[in-house]
Amino acid sequence: MLTLTTILNDARSAQAVFANYSQEQLDACARAVGKALYDNAKELAEDAVNETGMGNVADKTLKNQSKSRNVWHYLKGKKSTGVIERDEANGMITIAHPAGVVGAVTPTTSPSMTIMCNVMCALKGGNAIVIAPHPRAKKVSAKTVSIINAELDKLKAPENLVQCIEQPSMQLTNELMASVDVLVATGGPAMVKSAYSSGMPSFGVGAGNVQTIFDVDIDYQVAAQKVIAGRCFDNGIICSGDQSIIIPKQHYQQVIEAFTSQGAYYIEDQQQADKLREALFKDGYTNPDLIGQDVQVIAQYVGLHVPDTAKVILVKSNGRADDVLRSEKMCPVLSVFAYQDLEQAISIAKLNLEVRGKGHTCVIHSHTVEHIEKIGAALPVSRIAINEAGSLSVGGTLQNGFVPTGTLGCGFWGNNSTSENLNYQHMLNLQRIGFTMNHKPVPTDEEIWA
Prior knowledge:
Number of helices: 15
Structural class: alpha/beta
Distance between the termini: 68 Å
Pfam family, one: Aldedh
CATH topology of the largest domain: Aldehyde Dehydrogenase, Chain A, domain 1
Number of domains: 2
Keywords: Oxidoreductase
CATH architecture of the largest domain: 3-Layer(aba) Sandwich
GO molecular function, one term: oxidoreductase activity, acting on the aldehyde or oxo group of donors, NAD or NADP as acceptor
CATH class of the largest domain: Alpha Beta
Shape: globular
Organism: Arenicella xantha
Strand content: 15-25%
Strand order of the largest sheet: 10-13-14-9-8-15-16
Mean pLDDT: 96
Largest sheet: 7 strands, parallel
Protein name: Succinate-semialdehyde dehydrogenase
Low-confidence stretches: none
Radius of gyration: 23 Å
Number of strands: 17
C-alpha cells in the first residue's frame, strides 16, 4: 500500500505537467470523468448500496446520471486557465491558475457522485486531486476512481492525477487535510470541523435541515407530490431533502389529506410519535441503523404497522421547543407544523434551523412573490427552492440557476467559508492585472460625497 507521502508526491508531479494543459485538454479530461460516471451509473449505484447499506439502486443510478450530465453542461465552454476575462472598461485582466493538489473528503451517502463532482471541478482548473473516502464506502470509492483513471489514460493524462486512499483512516484523512493546497470536505459535522481546523484553505458543508413552508395560494396535491418525491429519493439521505413541512392551520386537514392520498403514513397520536422519536434519534442525530433506510424498515424497527405502499412517514410535532423532530432526519420521515400567519411560519422555521441546518436550504411553495421575498429575507439559509423538492433542485438542474454540485456551502450561518454551491472556481487562484486608466475622469470630492 502506498504511503500518503508517496501519494502526495505523485500528485504534485502529475499536477506540474497537467498545469500546462490547454483549455481544450482540460475540458476533455473533465468531460471524460462525467461521461465515465454516466456510463457506469447503475453498476456504481449497486456497489454503493451493497457496501454502505444506504439508499436504493434506482435513485442512486439516477443521481449519478443526472449530476454528471448537469455538471458537464455547466462546465462546458467556461474558461478556467490562462486569461479568462479582459475588462477593457476598467483596465483589468484576470488570469486563472490552478490551486495545485486538491484533497477531497467524501461521504458514505453519495460516494461516486461526490467524487465525480470534485474530480470534474478539480481537473477543469488544472489541479490534481486525492480522494479520502468514508471507510464504509471505500470499495465503491476506489472503483469509481479506477473507472475515472481508465478514461483519463485513454487521453494520455498524467498518471496519478486522480488518486484514492484505498484504506482510509481518520489519521490518514487528517494528514491529507494538513498537506494539500485546498481541501473540500463533504460529510458529517465532526469531519467538516476537522477540515476547518487543518490549517489549510478549506471548503466544508453544514448539516441540512430543510424547512418547507406552504403558502395558502397553492395546489396542495401538487406540492405534496413534490415533497414526497424529494423526501423518499434515495431513502432520504440527501442533505437538501425536505425535513419539516410548515403548513397553514386553516388548511391543515386538507394538506394532510393531500399527503396521505399520495403515499404518506400520517402519525398524529403523540404516544405513537414518541415511539418514533425514541427510535429515530441517538444523541440528537439520526440513528445510524435508520440512515438511508426505507419506510418499511423504519416501521419494523419502531414497531409500527404501515401499508406496503407507504413512501414516507409524516408525523405531527408536539409543538414543544425541544421536540427532536425539529432536527434533521436522514431517512424518509417528515415532521409537520401548523402556522396561524406568515410571521409564525417564519418563526417555526427559524427555531428549527437553530436546532440544526442553519445556512443550508429552505423550500417555499407559493405563487406570491411578496411572501417568497419576505420569507427569504427572514431566514438564515444560503439557498431557497421555489415550488420544487429541495433534494431535486438546489444541487443544480438543467432548468434552474443553481450551480450543479454535490457540495452545498452554508455560509457563515453554518460556520462554512462559502455560501455557494461548490464548483471549479473554488479550486482556482485568480490573478488580476490592473492598468492605470489615465484617461478616466477623476470625480471631485464634492461629487464623491454628494
